[in-house]
Structure formats: structure tokens, C-alpha cells
Fold:
Amino acid sequence: QVQLVEAGGGLVQPGGSLRLSCAASGFTFSSAAMSWYRQAPGKERELVAAISSSGLNTNYADSIKGRFTISRDNAKNTVYLQMINLKSEDTAVYYCHASWRDVLKEYNYWGQGTQVTVSS
Structure:
């Protein structure tokens, strides 16, 4: 079955860095677009960054542009989110998301999430 397992979250001070990873299995990773979303307490889940199946195209939320970088390693079935210059408002649960389609339908899967807390 499809599995997305996030890792790398934790507590970091403002201005610090973290790298999240999402290990994927159960589907053809190189055919899937991958994304990172986040959800802060009391807020809706929002898209942070997305990367195409080839890795050639990326998209970022305005709030994190210049600070976060999404990347993928199709040989390792893993997508990453490098985060630098973290701010308190980046505190949230971060979720990995995979999507792809075939001739019949679109598939969407979520990881279980990893907590990122930015606090002094």
C-alpha cells in the first residue's frame, strides 16, 4: 500500500534550520508530483511547496519563498524540504502529499505529518 513517512521535524530557535524528508513507497514515485503542506493550530492546511515528477518544476507559497527549498531524489523515493531562517509563524504540522493520475482517475495520498516548532 501507499506509504508516506515524514521525518526531520522538531523544535528549533528562530533563525534556525531544519530539513524534512518524506520517504515514499507503494507507488511509482518518479511518476508522482510531490508537495509539502502545513497546518498551524486553528488554521487551514496550506500548500508550502510543490515539485513535479521530474523535479524540473517547483512552486512555493509566497510566505516561504527564499527560505524553503523543495527537492526530490527519485532514486531514493524521497522528497525533501530544506527550511532556513525559520520564523515563529512557520510553526505547524508539515505533511507530505503525493498525487498522480492514470487514464481513469487521480490519486492523492497524505503522510501522517511531522511537527515543526519554532520558538526561543
